[in-house]
Write a structure and sequence with these properties.
Chains A, B: It comes from Actinoplanes italicus. 2 copies of one chain form a homodimer. The first copy, chain A, contains 9 helices and no strands. Chain A is mainly alpha-helical.
DNA sequence: CCGTAATGGAACACCGCTGTTCCAAATTGG
DNA sequence: CCAATTTGGAACAGCGGTGTTCCATTACGG
């Protein structure tokens, strides 16, 4: 049986994952050596935790999915006015930062992400359609694409221009809100 | 001196560039072999036209910049109401397709792209700010990020879901228009 | 129709990344 | 403080992409 992580093991594992998120978000084809350096860990150690590159990627996706789910839960998208709920979701996702750009760059069509949202998200959009706060011409799937792409735009904007995190978040939520209005 | 392209040379060169756009837009780290196959050309021939990978990339950027500039010119962003001009620009860029996703994926902050637009684009946004058709809270740079990210979202949407080009374009222009409204 | 240009295939060395093994050093916990 | 765990460095083979050379074949223009 696998030994229970003795604390040190868990810490190292997390350090590697964090570094991998940061490095691979910027350059999806970065080498494992780069990740190891960023994690301040020997390449040997990295291989000890994740035998193959694909194992690391898998763990990364699991981590991203988990955080995505938590963030979705925190946004309570089934409560209150639709647009406000959409903007709460936007805020929560924005805080995930690099973690989501990972999913975004690999495959926008990520099977997970669609299913993660679809139950509640479609319902949210439907709510907005019926109460007139969301343009009925815009399907839920498109609004989801919009949300993701604007988050991406926000992160890029943050990284490239000297603008505060708070200010960027303001721009994104405002733009998302405006884009879905009828 | 380099011999003047005899027609056949120019055709081959163009075939390689077209294939490179298609292949590299989907996977920026695709091999030159993949590009050669897509161009229906031997790898040797490809190397004959572009000695190094970086030479191909450079040519690709030049091609993208040129088409970007033409598209910008066609949109006549200095004419008419600001939002309509923005939507014309959106339409023209949308038609560039893969060519622009290339620039987008490599570096959203592409030095070229900012300078290409900045003269006219900032003016367009200013026009919208003063006549009240564009939310004055949104800076030109952000609107530009928005435009690009929504185009990207549109292309992805087109590729992944069975939606017509025309329909996607409608969604993008509508969303862009909505996003910048005060 | 002949010669030149253009092409593609094969083979080659080179390089960086990957995944593995082995061993010595450092850390940690009891 | 000792022993087990954890770590990192070095070295290695394998692999795929790169860039080059050489040669035979094909296409094209005068």
């Amino acid at each position: 049986m696998t030994t229970v992580p003795t604390g040190s093991r868990a810490r190292t594992r997390q350090a590697i994952l964090d570094a991998a998120v940061e490095v691979l978000a910027r350059n999806p084809s970065a080498s494992l050596g780069d990740v190891a350096v960023a994690a301040d860990v020997g390449r040997t150690t990295l291989h000890r935790y994740f035998a193959e590159r694909s194992d690391l990627i898998t763990a990364l996706h699991a981590l991203a999915d988990e955080r995505l789910e938590r963030a979705t839960a925190r946004a309570r998208i089934d409560e209150g006015p639709a647009v406000a709920a959409l903007q709460r979701l936007c805020r929560e996702y924005f805080d995930l930062g690099d973690v989501l750009s990972l999913l975004f760059r690999d495959q926008v069509n990520c099977d997970e992400e669609t299913t993660v949202c679809d139950e509640g998200f479609e319902e949210l959009v439907r709510r907005g359609h019926t109460d007139g706060s969301i343009d009925p011409e815009l399907p839920a799937l498109w609004i989801q694409s919009l949300l993701w792409s604007q988050l991406y735009a926000g992160w890029s904007y943050l990284a490239e221009h000297g603008v505060s995190r708070h200010e960027v978040l303001r721009l994104v939520t405002r733009s998302i809100g405006g884009a879905v209005r009828p």
